[in-house]
């Protein structure tokens, strides 16, 4: 069976077994995306490290569950987006921490060392 002249024939799908579950989106995929988004939005304020780390851990669990389900759990695109956002959040946290450390070192280097006495004290 072909759809039109010159096109590749369509593959015939075998009928599904009646006891096979319907494919559904994994609920952890939504959670990974939401936590990744929160981690990316709050990453510049160091608080984004917690939701981003949780998102990456949930993504690992969700991938294992999706693999074990044999294709009946969907949501791989949401997982990828959530993982990317979580990694962006962690990079923003790292940039914020490095920036704060550099600012602290520069301020510490510019401040006087030791006790500052009046000019008339030996």
Automatic annotation (TrEMBL):
Instruction: Classify the source by domain of life.
Output: Bacteria
Q: Which sequence ranges are marked TM in the entry?
A: 31-56, 88-109
User: Which species expresses this protein natively?
Assistant: Micromonospora wenchangensis
Alphabetically sorted, this entry's keywords are: Membrane, Transmembrane, Transmembrane helix
Disordered: annotated segments: 1-21
Annotated protein name in UniProt: DUF4190 domain-containing protein
Presence of keyword Transmembrane: yes
